[in-house]
Design brief:
The structure holds 2 protein chains of 2 kinds.
Chain A (H helix, E strand, L loop, with lengths): L3 E6 L36 H15 L11 H5 L10 H14 L17 E8 L6 H18 L5 E8 L4 H13 L4 E4 L3 H15 L2 E4 L16 E3 L4 H14 L4 E7 L2 H16 L3 E8 L7 H7 L6 E5 L2 H14 L6 E4 L8 H5 L6 E7 L5 H12 L7 H18 L4 H12 L4 E3 L4 H9 L4 E3 L16 E10 L2 E11 L1
Parallel strand pairs in A: 2-3, 2-4, 4-5, 5-6, 7-8, 7-9, 9-10, 10-11, 12-13
Antiparallel strand pairs in A: 1-15, 11-14, 14-15
Helix pairs in contact in A: 4-12, 4-13, 5-6, 7-8, 13-14, 13-15
Chain B lengths: L2 H38 L4 H32 L6 H20 L6 H5 L9 H4 L7 H27 L7 H23 L4 E2 L6 E2 L10 E2 H23 L1 H11 L1 H6 L4 H27 L1 E2 L3 H16 L4 H17 L9 H15 L12
Antiparallel strand pairs in B: 1-4, 2-3
Helix pairs in contact in B: 2-8, 2-11, 2-12, 2-13, 3-6, 3-7, 3-11, 3-12, 6-11, 8-9, 8-11, 9-11, 12-13, 12-14, 13-14
The chains are: A alpha/beta, B mainly alpha.
């Protein structure tokens, strides 16, 4: 656990602006087999899409249904048998692809994938409830690989379920996905949902889960038979980042005001111990319940000793009320508030009706090698900038798809055993830029390593990330702005 | 007189006395501890005053919502679980109107009509606070009351009237169904996202409010309106013919019928007053809180029931007193216990009171 801050560089206004140009998900008109390696020559654009779709309509009919139960051997071999009638086309494919397949800059892909079966991925995110404001975009990120791979001929079955930010609802939603035979699930978001889902539903049924947003430190050592991974970092790190930041800003006393669940308690504990180690004094630690009618009295308790800093760990629905009550009764202009990833919501200042100038925050940042391709794709698809954990959600689903293809069957244990194989180093680099090509390569049995939008996506033995980046953000009426970045490595 | 009976009577008497004595001892200990804390400075008077004020505000919220519930209980003889969602109905309909008026020319019609379901113009942009847009807010209040009444009457006509003589349990189950239907219909129209609908409340400083630097005008509006409405209901019940009929019906329905009281008309009046209060309560709660959610009433319902049962279900004065006790307990208990336990304290107190007085504080005093 030798984790330290390696590098800290100021990147004002990094924002979401990045690569210009459009991205298109163009497929080949020629019916392709899994052995057509795709070329990604960058000519895909919006206009191509229609044609591509038309072409793929034919492909889907291409014997996939009858081959639904084919064995691994066949998928690994690229399913030549099923596509024998179209080898001429594949020939041209191969020729084109040779020169281009390692080029990392393509923004569109021309890949035909046919592995002869359906790839199933479940998405379990809170689109309603306390986390609803963040969960919707996270869900959007999680299903984005589906949109990206549309038109490649890969039969992808992504099913969404809503946890309602509620453990019971989350458990039954997870059970529904498991019962429907989904071998891998992107989810859940709240740690208090993810932990019981992993121990009570996923592990016993041997279904693998990759959470994009559950940061509770307790997940690291969870008894999950390695069926739970996450693309977000543990809050054991975020607590240290927060404490370092508080120390640098010269705060001597701090109060912790946190949501009464796994996420809130564990992150608060992590901050408190790190802050005390740096010589700070923690005046009050107050837990609050979600979605209460009023937080005035509880805030009074938390702010009892006039601390320099108050950390607020919670989710947006409660956060709106907390900050409304704060600005109504307590805003003395002296206390700084530090929030975390759970409250990184662009709509918060508008909903609080205050510019929240005394609030800073930390959150895991999407700073993976291929974040720009992801951001561009997300904006194109949904018309808004990606939010917190959306990139992590994309990566989780992408890794599940790759691992599923590598496994050769919709089996949780097989998917689990292939996650590190497709994500960790050694192999051809694939990522948001060339996901379809990556799927195709995996189908051909080539070794790949997934480099994600959120991070390099290397899983350690516990299923945690090996290296992550944090951001420091501030609020304005326009939303959230990143003002600083901190890199962390295990 | 047999000795067995005597023994049983004595033991029941002693156990009741024991509970009573325990309650008194606990109250004294807590009061002494409060004094000690203030004396040693671990609790400032300012903090205690803040807790008390918030307790009263919360209590008035529960009370305002609880009167309607208590009225429908005493006159219609069933626990209306859809009462919370009538609050929500009032809040959404009223604030939609307020948004439509205040947002004219600033926000899109669709965004105003669906109360920012698309995250459109934030309330600060509309200056939607009581001094900035008083007409919009008043119009919203009126619509909140009227629309909730209409919806409650419609529901009564369709659901409850055919079940009028079916007894309490079928009506209760039906009301749970109505609650779910109402809530998810609202979610269907407005989405289930939380959002803010009022701008920050202005502060009002005046020497009258010596204990604080500035009074939150929205909170003050809520408190004053709630008090006025409670007094109004008291006057209505005591000094009008309708009020007398209502009390007669609550006491003995058959007798009321024989005496020539038009019961169905009284039932309709009860629904109108109860639902109107619910709609206004929901609207005012949102004015005070600033945020709106489809769970607004549902989350309050348990506390409202606690308040009503504590006060003696069916008694309106009981509902008000019970609500204040629950509100104060939730807030002042923070002196001793962490906030995640304060509802436990409130419900614990309710159980304790019911052990001593199973009919609730005002349960013996008939009625309304």
């Amino acid at each position: 656990m030798a984790r330290k801050i390696d590098r800290r560089d100021v990147l004002r206004g990094i924002g979401a602006a990045g690569v210009t140009g459009t991205i298109g998900l163009a497929g080949c008109l020629d019916g392709g087999g899994g052995n057509g390696n795709g070329n990604g020559n960058g000519n895909g654009n919006g206009e191509d899409e229609e044609a591509a779709d038309a072409g793929n309509g034919e492909d889907t009919g291409n014997g996939n249904d009858t081959e639904g139960t084919e064995t691994e051997a066949e998928t690994e071999n690229g399913t030549e048998e099923t596509d024998g009638n179209e080898t001429e086309d594949n020939g041209t494919d191969d020729n084109e692809s040779e020169g281009n397949e390692t080029g990392g800059n393509e923004t569109a892909e021309d890949v035909e994938i046919d592995i002869g079966r359906e790839v199933m991925v479940g998405v379990l995110q809170p689109t309603t409830g306390d986390l609803g404001d963040l969960g919707g975009p996270i869900r959007d990120g999680a299903i984005l690989p589906g949109a990206q791979l549309e038109g490649t001929g890969l039969e992808l079955d992504i099913r969404e379920e809503d946890t309602q930010t509620d453990t019971e609802a989350g458990l039954s939603a997870a059970q529904a996905l498991v019962d429907a035979g989904y071998p891998g699930i992107t989810g859940a978001a709240a740690s208090s949902t993810t932990i019981p889902v992993a121990t009570d539903v996923l592990a016993p049924n041997q279904v693998v889960g990759i959470s994009p947003a559950s940061t509770a430190p307790g997940i690291t050592d969870l008894e999950d038979d390695d069926f739970l991974f996450r693309t977000c970092p543990s809050d054991a790190l975020q607590g240290e980042v927060m404490a370092e930041l508080a120390d640098e800003e010269g705060f001597e006393t701090a109060a912790s005001f946190h949501l009464n669940n796994d996420y809130g308690q564990q992150l608060s504990e992590s901050f408190v111990s790190a802050f005390e180690e740096l010589g700070g004094e923690v005046s009050q630690t107050v837990a609050f319940e979600a979605e209460q009618p009023s937080y005035s009295s509880v805030l009074e308790t938390a702010l009892a000793d006039d601390p320099d800093l108050m950390i607020v760990i919670g989710y947006p629905a409660s956060g709106q009320q907390i900050f409304r009550d704060y600005y109504a009764d307590f805003d003395d202009g002296e206390t700084t508030i530090m929030v975390t990833d759970g409250l990184r919501d662009d709509g918060l200042p508008g909903n609080v009706d205050n510019e929240m100038a005394n609030v800073i925050g930390t959150a895991p940042l999407a700073a993976g090698p291929q974040v720009e391709a992801f951001t561009e794709m997300y904006e194109e698809e949904y018309g808004s900038s990606p939010g917190v954990f959306t990139a992590q959600a994309y990566d989780a689903t992408a890794v599940l798809i790759l691992a599923n293809v590598a496994a050769g069957e919709n089996d949780g244990t097989a998917v689990r055993d292939n996650i590190r194989a497709v994500a960790n180093p050694e192999g051809e680099v694939v990522g948001p830029e060339n996901l379809a090509q990556g799927v195709s390569m995996v189908a051909d049995g080539e070794e790949v390593q997934y480099e994600g939008a959120s991070s390099g996506v290397d899983f350690d033995d516990n299923g945690d990330m090996q290296a992550v980046t944090y951001e420091i953000f501030e609020f304005s009426m326009d939303g959230v702005e990143t003002v600083d970045e901190i890199d962390y490595e295990a | 007189m047999s000795t067995v009976d005597l023994g049983g009577g004595i033991s029941r008497l002693t156990s009741e006395r024991t509970v009573r004595a325990l309650v008194v001892v606990a109250a004294v200990v807590l009061a002494l501890d409060l004094v000690r804390r203030i004396y040693t400075g671990s609790l400032t008077l300012g903090t205690l005053g803040f807790y008390l004020w918030n307790g009263i505000v919360d209590g008035l919220v529960f009370g305002l919502a609880g009167i309607g519930l208590s009225m429908t209980y005493s006159i219609l003889r069933f626990a209306n679980f859809s009462h919370g969602d009538l609050l929500t109905t009032g809040a959404f309909s009223g604030w939609t109107v307020a948004y439509l008026i205040a947002g004219a020319g600033i926000a899109d019609t669709s965004s105003r009509l669906l109360l920012r379901a698309d995250g459109g113009a934030p309330p600060g942009q509309l200056d939607l606070q009581i001094l900035g847009e008083p007409i919009a807010i008043l119009a919203g209040l009126v619509v909140a009351a009227l629309l909730t009444v209409l919806i409650a009457l419609a529901i009564d006509r369709v659901v409850y009237r055919p079940l009028r003589d079916a007894g309490g349990i079928p009506l209760l189950i039906a009301s749970v169904g109505v609650a779910l239907a109402l809530r998810y219909f609202i979610a269907l129209v407005y989405t289930s996202q939380n959002r803010a609908v009022t701008a920050s409340s202005p502060e009002w400083s005046s020497p009258v409010f010596f204990w604080t630097e500035g009074v939150n005008v929205h909170e003050l509006t809520m408190v004053v309106s709630a008090t006025v409405l409670m007094v109004g209901i008291h006057l209505l019940l005591q000094y009008t013919k309708l009020g007398t009929s209502m009390r007669a019906m609550a006491d003995n329905r058959d007798l009321a019928l024989i005496t020539g009281i038009p019961t169905e008309r009284v039932v309709r009046a009860t629904w109108m007053i109860g639902a109107g209060l619910a709609g206004v309560a929901g609207y005012l709660i949102v004015l005070d809180r600033g945020t709106i959610t489809i769970n607004l009433g549902w989350f309050l319902l348990l506390l409202i029931f606690a308040a009503v049962i504590l006060g003696g279900i069916g008694s309106i004065y009981g509902a008000i007193v019970g609500a204040l006790i629950i509100g104060l307990t939730i807030n002042v208990s923070l002196v001793w216990i962490p906030s995640d336990m304060n509802e436990i304290a409130a419900f614990g107190l309710m159980i304790l009171v019911l052990l001593v007085r199973p009919q609730g504080l005002f349960g013996g005093v008939e009625t309304a």
